């Protein structure tokens, strides 16, 4: 599973870096305003750095498990099964930070589209739940032990809560964004402003596509985690570059 997830993650990571380059080019060279959107620039760089750190952590973890610990008692399987190991905790920490940042960006977009903090207030409360469950899950992972199988039950509970809250936050914010864009396009249509309508519908679909991509990978991971299927660890690795790609995709598709 580790080899498969790292290989596929590597391919998606390469594509995410390509999308990062396109995003920076659009934000710097093809912007429609004289001012650079520094919020998106900083967020893009942070996403790229986090995904790179996660990729490196996975490669290091793979090397340690398959080479350094191949002759230890239990072999690589026993080593990979120990989720309290530093390399696993580190990559999960990176993933949690990335997921929270992804939700924060969607909330920021809600504010920008609605131009009101009221529409960012409730999602802001929701993201505190995402962060809290993520921290709780990370703590339980650190405290878990292969010698105490019951410790994994607590991990299961916290991680399930994390996925439920991040899915809810993203779904709620995506619906707010989609409704606002649709309502603006509908109002413009009443005045027969066809060019604006043509511009509004593609943006609506881009936002929905991005939200669906984010939701799909997390929903699959949640289902696998609830079923205690080992595929959940694969989808956790795949979620990292997909979160970044879904963020870059909005900027690139609108900018192009």
TrEMBL record:
Taxonomic placement: Eukaryota, Fungi, Dikarya, Basidiomycota, Agaricomycotina
**Regions crossing the membrane:** 12-29, 36-57, 92-111, 118-142, 162-182, 203-228, 234-254
**Superkingdom of source:** Eukaryota
Q: What is this protein called?
A: Uncharacterized protein
Entry keyword Transmembrane helix: yes
What keyword terms does UniProt attach to this protein?
Membrane, Transmembrane, Transmembrane helix
Q: Which organism is it from?
A: Heterobasidion irregulare (strain TC 32-1)
